[in-house]
Structure formats: structure tokens, C-alpha cells
Amino acid sequence: MYTRIMIPVAWALVTLSVPALLVANPPPPANSDPISITPASPSIGFGNTPGDIYGEQPGLWVVAQGWDVGGPGPILHAPDFAYGLTPVDNNDGHSNGEWNPWVEQFIYFSGSPSSVGMPLTAYNTQSGLWQAEGDRFVANGIASPPPAVAMATGIQANVFPSFPGPLNLLSANQTRFNEIPSVPAMVPNPGVYPPDDMDALELTLFDINGDKIPDRPVYFTVDRPTAMALGVSPADVLFSPPGGMWNPWFPAPQLGLAPVDDVDALAVFDLHARGIPEPGIDYALFSLAPGSPTLDGADGVAGTADDYSAADIFVTNFNGAFMLYLPASAIGMLPTDDVDALDVESVFTDNPPVEVFDWWQWLLNFDVWIPPWTPLPPNDFHIELEGVPPELVGELWIDMFPMVVVEPMGLNGTRISWSGAEALPGTWIHFGFVILDQVYPTQVRWYFTRDGEPIIDVPWIFQRWDWWANPPYTGLVDVVQNMYTEEVAVQRFTTVEPVEPVKLPD
Predict the structure, then answer these.
(1) Per-residue confidence at 163, pLDDT binned at 50, 70, 90?
(2) Nearest to 72, CA basis, from 173, 176, 179
(3) How far is CA 502 from CA 234, 384, 404, 447, in A?
(4) Residue 250 forms beta bridges with which residues?
(5) How remote is the C-alpha of 144 from its chain's centroid?
(6) Please, what's the b/e burial string for 111-133 (b: 16 or more CB within 10 A of its CB; e: otherwise)?
(7) What does the alpha-carbon distance between residue 160 and residue 139 come to, in Å, rounded to a whole number?
(8) DSSP letter at 484?
């Protein structure tokens, strides 16, 4: 029987030096990307409430320590009372105001526990691991036309892919917010606790100076029980000024909804006088909770052809009407799913372009040639990523190797090991993986072994394909030398713009 043996890395063949670790939202403050979680989430009740707004875990990608392992649970960004709620109230969807409804948008979302996503999507993968509802996802591309254009013309939007792949991608694992379960993105939830359910989503800060009081407005909706207690509709959009109490902003009829509908995901464009409702000037994207009568369509009868989905995304300019902006299928969700958290980032046209994803995704593809003169076929291939935690490594491509293991390495690193097959001399083999966020490894090492012993005389070729090239897959950014005579083609990709090529040290 073949046994994989992990060995020290001091003899690694090739070392690639890259820039120091970067994060999308550096401190201060550390608690960015604010979310809320549902009342049914297991983290509620340990000093956490469904009206609290939580932030990203402080520090640089520390492994989460949620209540399932006795840690602090979600990290407080702004408490419920800081914008007018009480501990029994539920923040069902929130926004701090988007940039421009007249340009195209990137769509970020999360789903409810009942949602499974379309096959072959990141949502479907995470749902199968029983952790999707705590994760943040992003549609794979730009939603076009812009929301305001869609509302003016009646032309429904679609998502035009940023690069080949599934309709949605994992943007942030639940560990980023210290939610339950505290397991990496590609690891099954052991099921000790049900997962926390992300209930509201925003990509930018409410609290800027770290005092846990919102410095920017909070636009939000509440669920049915909270709405009844507050004397509002769960389809009303409420507004809290910075550090103040909430007030009604737009009532349900101005969204084209019935008071018994429930808006459970929200992204607001308040464009002129902040906090002053201005129909026809302000816009919002939203989704509706299951059971909302408007989902039954114009005929008011569930199960007929004009029904909407709780995973559909709608647009309104608050003139008393809405239209379907993105159907569930456009973001990789099923009609039976429920999008219950939503945010967008507008596409900027500045030069140079600014970051439009709050994560950068590396798509790494290794094409390796085993020369005919190789004395022994390798049966292990290892890549070590210092400065990249295991939960940020996914979408593993195994090709000819039937087994791949992703495991922690050191304090904040990852080792990926492919094994279980003979890489015969004179053949090509292929490896691939994705780094799921804006994190640069401080070092990358790669090496072959056979039965756990290093093979130090396997020259090989490494390639990274350029997804933006025209035609695709052909644009190599840079070529460097490895310790042998073969050239090593190195290329890195972000969702925004090319990065300066990285060279091996002289």
C-alpha cells in the first residue's frame, strides 16, 4: 500500500520570493466587512444578538475560534443599541449606501440554510460541506446593465463572467467573521453545531474609528417578529443616522411591495440628501424572504409561471414599483433557494482602476513535464505557501493524482500534497488551485518526492495562464530560471489588473 510521508522543507528545490502579506481592509479598524447573523444561529446567546453588527476577525487571518471550540464567537462591530435596536430585534438586511447605480455592479451575497446553489458552483460545494449559509459569495462577473438603467429601460440584467468558471465564487469563508463552524473552506462541517447564518452583508465599514458607534448611516430592514414589535413592515427600509436612532425611510408600497412582504437582503443607493427619501433619485437592490406574497407573481397564485424566487434580486427607484434585476440562475442559485444577504460594489472607470473586489483570487495552473531521463518516477508533488492559511486554498485540480491533502504548515501557512500515482518519465502532469482572497504568500516552494523521499533531479516547467489574454490562456507575464536550465514561466492574476512580475532571487 502506498503511504504518503511528509518531510522537512529545508531542501526545497525552488523558492519564489514575493511581496509581504496584504489584506483587503487593513486596520485600523480590524473589524471590517460588517455582517449580522440570524436569531437561529448558534452563536446567538453568548452575549451576541441578532441585532448586533459583526466585523471581520481582528488580526491577519487568524484561524477562527467560534463558540464551537470555546472562543469569542463573532466580533462586535456595532451593537444593536448603537443604531436603535434592542437585543431581541433582528437586523434582516443592511447597507451603508452604495456608490453609483448608473454603473455596472459586482454582486456579493449569502444564502439561507435551505439553499443549495446550482451544481458545480462554489455555493453548492460549500452547501455540501454544511457551511454555506455563513459564507460570503460573489457572482462570477459584472452585472449589466446598471441598476438604474435596468429600471429606466425595463431591460433585465445578466452577469457577464470575469473569467471562466462557475456562476458564483467563494468570497469569504465563515471563519473570516469568526462564525461557527471554525473549519477551513474545503473541510466538511463536523455537525457538532449547525452553522451560523449570515443575515445581512456590507463590504465597507459602518464604524470607522473603532468606537463601535456607526460613523456612517445604517439602512436596514427587520424580520417579521421585529417589525411587529416596532410597528413597521418587514418590507420597509429604515434609516439610522450616524450614532442615532432609526426612522422610517421608504415604506413598502414605495418599493412596489405589500406590507406583508419581507425584504431580507438590501443594498441602497442614497444619492442626494443623505437620509432624505427621494423617490426617483434613490435606488435599492433587494431580495425577498420566502413567504412574501409578491413572490407569487402578478396572479397572486403560488406555483404558476409568473412566480419569482426568494433568490431573485430586484431593483427599485422607490417610485412605487420594482423589476426583476437578476434572476437566481444568473448568480448560480436555484429557484428554490433564498438569498438573505446582499451587497454590491460599483465598477469604477478611474485610471488606474481601483480594487473592485475586496479579495483577489489567484488562479494557479501548473503544467509539469517529467523528462525522459528522470531516474525514478515521482509519486508526490508538494507546494508550500507561507503566509496563506489553509481556509484560503480551494478549487483543487487533481488531474492524474487521485489524492490531494491541504494541511496547515507552521504558524500561518499551507502545504498542498498531490499523491497516489506514478508521474512517468516523458509525460506531462497538471496541478491547479485557487487562493481565495487578497493574500500574497511570503514564500512559495514546490518539490517532488517518491515514497516520501526527495527527488532533486527532476527539471520541470511551471506555467500560469493569463485569463485576460486574447486569445485566452496564452499570455505569459514573465519567464525566470529555476536551479536547472529550464525556464519557469511565472504569472500572477488578480481580478483587477496585472501585478508586476515576480522573479527568483539572483
Answers:
(1) low
(2) 179
(3) 52, 17, 27, 19
(4) 237
(5) 20
(6) bbbebbbbeebbbbbbbebbbbb
(7) 9
(8) S
Joined grid coordinates for residue 348: 469604477
Q: Is residue 100 pLDDT above 70, yes or no?
A: yes
Question: Cell numbers of 56, please?
Answer: 471581520
- Is residue 85 within 8 A of residue 53, CB to CB? The reply is no
Q: Picking from 3-12, 22-31, 167-176, 235-244, which range would have the lowest pLDDT averaged per residue?
A: 3-12
* Set of cell numbers at residue 77: 462591530
CA distance 387 to 384: 10
Query: Are the C-beta atoms of 110 and 340 separated by less than 8 Å?
Result: yes
Amino acid, res. 59 = G
Counts of helices then strands in the chain (DSSP H, E): 3, 29
How does DSSP classify residue 221? E
More confident residue, 49 or 175: 49
Give the whole-angstrom CA distance, residue 93 versus residue 216.
Answer: 16
Q: Which residue has the higher pLDDT, 2 or 65?
A: 65
Residues 450 and 413: beta-carbon distance below 8 Å: no
All 3 cell numbers of residue 356? 473592485
SS3 68: helix
What's the chain's Rg over C-alpha atoms? 24
Three-state secondary structure along 96-147? CCCCCCCCCEEEEEEECCCCCCCCCCHHHHHHHCCCHHHCEEEECCEEECCH
Residue in 112, 411, 150 with CA at minimum distance from that of residue 284: 150
Residue 411 neighbours by CB distance under 10 Å: 9
d(CA 258, CA 237): 13
Backbone region of residue 395 per phi and psi (left: phi > 0; alpha: psi in -120 to 50; beta: other values): left
Output the nine-digit C-alpha cell for 468: 485576460
Q: Do 341 and 359 meet the contact criterion of CB atoms below 8 Å apart?
A: no
Q: Which of 146, 169, 50, 168 is nearest to 98 (CA)?
A: 146
Residue 400 has pLDDT above 90, yes or no: no
Q: State what percent of residues in the chain have pLDDT above 90.
A: 42
Q: Sign of the CA dihedral 65, 71, 75, 81?
A: positive
Residue whose C-alpha is closest to residue 497's, from 354, 365, 364, 358 = 354
> Contact 109/123 with Cβ under 8 angstroms?
no
The angle subtended at Cα 67 by Cα 339 and Cα 234, nearest 5°, is 30
* Residue labelled with grid coordinates 459586482: 106
As a whole number of angstroms, the distance between CA 413 and CA 391 comes to: 10
| Residue 396: φ, ψ to 5° | -75, 135
DSSP secondary structure letter of residue 215: S
Report the distance separating Cα 170 and Cα 436, nearest Å: 7
**Which residues on neighbouring strands pair with residue 160, listed in sequence order?**
142
Of 98-102, 394-398, 438-442, the range with the lowest mean pLDDT is 438-442
